[in-house]
Design goal:
Length: 357
Amino acid sequence: MKEENIKLRRVIILLVAVCLVLPLAAFGCGRRAGSAGVVNVHNWGEYIDESIFAIFERETGIRVNYSTYETNEALYALMRRGGANIDVIIPSDYMIARMIEENMLQELDFSNIPNFSLIDDRYIGLEYDPDSKFSVAYMTGTVGIIYNTAMISENITSWGALFDERYSGQILMFENPRDAFGIALKYLGYNINTTSESEIREAFDMLVGQRPILQAFVMDQIFDKLESGEAWIGPYYAGDYLIMAENNPDLAFARPIEGTNFFVDAMCIPRDAQNKTNAELFINFMSRTDIAMMNMDYIMYASANYEAAAEFAADLSHDSREIMFASDATLANSNVFTNLPHETLVLYNDLWIELKR
């Protein structure tokens, strides 16, 4: 899927990383900083190259404690319960807006984040954080349908394929309400940010009708199921498709004609974070061009760092570039999730619980 020069660069990056983390006596790659505490990072699964933590630790003396979550909603629930010792989180646009509204995040000290200057202007001052006080954009991407061409011979072009009885028992669906309802709403021709109860209930009815032909609701489990052929079709994020296709070249990716979701995930600091300065240093590190390049090469999402994104995109084939870096035409047919009014969120929650019974 990716070009040979990208594979070669992986080897070069690995060698650089080894040089950075081995003792000074062996390679003379730099001087180890003194101990400066920890930073507790909580991120989506399969969404960072964990090898770069050793570089950060060597450069700063700050130890990275790393843990993962599967959905924005799971992260939100954890934060609401309190008691979570977390310094950096990476929620999506609509969840950032909700957390800001509910005073769950703290403002950043950008004097500790000079690499903010490398963030593409397209991802600064967006609706979820209009004054760019609480977040630094991390990665961007779109949602589409991933399907096994060895099992499905037709070209998939519509969200309707996920409701097609011909694929009964082989269909996967998102294990989170915004993505699942968003798909049904798009297929029905509605705005994914609708607050209309009747439209949301119509989408709910579609999801209820889908239940008998579903194999499973999934998040990261989709990797094993689609790569192994255990399931044939499911919706997921474009960057993850590029990783899956390396392991199963029969997999294909489609952005449905009805349109899709374009998302921005960003790095934030919870209100109760105990290591704020360390968190800001980590955010700055993750925004650095060489680190963003290493990270993109591992997770295959589009970095918000404009230098890294431009260099990486230049090395991709046309098809891979269009999947990883959505074109203007794709973006014109996409929507970003926004935070919804309280009563709409309650409706979503109630319907989701009913759907999953």
